[in-house]
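A.,

Following up on our hallway conversation. Structure tokens first:
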């Protein structure tokens, strides 16, 4: 009788622990993928968001995770269940109101030699993900120190232009996908109807060789973007901050693009102020300019606010942090005021 050949086991990659006996294989493979991504993007805290693909609503609960929590089998099992229920799993290294030194590039129609091209330019990605066939996300570490929002946004846009990435997703705190989970977007389904897995193409920790050159390329005027705005008065704004006409154009442009008046018959302009502030900060607009835009262009400002400067401080402080919810500018019907309070203007990448 012929003896069946011995079952071959795949040797674990360096830095990744092998599959544990008795552990579900799918869970173990997801754990390995997460381990590889976190090992290549070391940080002390990560923001994790679960966004339901059909409703665009976030899953409530803990959003800040340590590396140990993200590599805990029970936690990963929980994330896998939510993923099967239609939630996409997004994350980024968290540094409060700053960027943690990691820049994300969303790439549609990425050419096969992308990794080699980035290496040639000295922009070696620490992580390259395939989020679905033909779609990639690259994380580039440009600094071991935190970066001001405007600096990180400028570098993200520069890299997006260089490699044909999505400039609309190039900002200092844009969310990327976490490896080991499926991409729930209907347009990314495989021909047989399955959601594709988010796979690691490349993972190696380290600052890109040209990271410092990218930092040096940012114009000096962009660097001090996160300026304190305590004590700013309407009649004491910096001369070059923004003119009343420019402020009105920017604010009303957001109102029109997001169809605020059509969606909300009686808009709560404090909520709209928050959305506008979050959008502008996400684009790298200096905080002092955002404050000026709200003062000069928010309808009937200061309205009923007894301390307008305190209102502006609180609005910009809240806008500095990602908020759960769906895109402000997506096509919606009328929305209740209660639901409007949890909307956000960023839900992640590919």
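Then the amino acids I'd put at each of the 350 positions:
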């Amino acid at each position: 009788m012929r003896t069946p050949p011995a079952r071959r086991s795949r040797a674990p990659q360096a830095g990744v622990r092998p599959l544990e006996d008795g552990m579900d294989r799918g869970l173990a493979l997801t754990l390995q993928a997460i381990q590889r991504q976190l090992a290549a993007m070391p940080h002390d805290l990560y923001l994790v968001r679960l966004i339901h693909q059909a409703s665009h609503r976030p899953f409530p609960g803990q959003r800040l995770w340590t590396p140990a929590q993200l590599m805990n089998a029970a936690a990963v099992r929980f994330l896998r269940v939510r993923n099967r229920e239609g939630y996409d799993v997004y994350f980024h290294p968290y540094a409060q109101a700053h960027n943690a030194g990691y820049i994300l590039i969303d790439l549609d129609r990425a050419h096969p030699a992308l990794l080699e091209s980035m290496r040639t330019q000295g922009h070696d990605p620490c992580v390259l993900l395939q989020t679905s066939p033909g779609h990639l996300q690259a994380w580039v570490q440009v600094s071991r120190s935190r970066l001001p929002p405007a600096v990180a946004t400028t570098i993200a846009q520069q890299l997006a232009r260089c490699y044909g990435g999505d400039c609309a997703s190039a900002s200092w705190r844009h969310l990327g996908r976490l490896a080991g989970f499926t991409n729930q977007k209907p347009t990314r389904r495989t021909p047989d109807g399955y959601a594709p897995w988010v796979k690691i193409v490349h993972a190696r920790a380290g600052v890109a060789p040209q990271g410092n050159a990218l930092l040096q390329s940012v114009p000096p005027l962009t660097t001090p973007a996160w300026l304190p705005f305590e004590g700013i008065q309407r009649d004491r704004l910096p001369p070059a901050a923004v003119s009343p006409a420019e402020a009105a154009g920017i604010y009303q442009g957001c109102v029109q693009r997001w169809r605020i008046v059509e969606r909300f018959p009686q808009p709560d302009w404090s909520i709209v102020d928050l959305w506008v502030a979050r959008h502008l900060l996400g684009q790298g607009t200096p905080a002092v300019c955002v404050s000026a835009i709200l003062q000069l262009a928010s309808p009937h400002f200061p309205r009923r606010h007894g301390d307008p400067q305190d209102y502006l401080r609180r609005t910009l402080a809240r806008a500095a942090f990602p908020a759960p919810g769906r895109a402000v500018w997506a096509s919606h019907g009328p929305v209740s005021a209660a639901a409007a309070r949890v909307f956000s203007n960023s839900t992640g990448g590919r």
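Residues 1-16, 221-240, 324-348 have pLDDT under 50 and may be disordered. Curious whether your intuition agrees with the design.

B.
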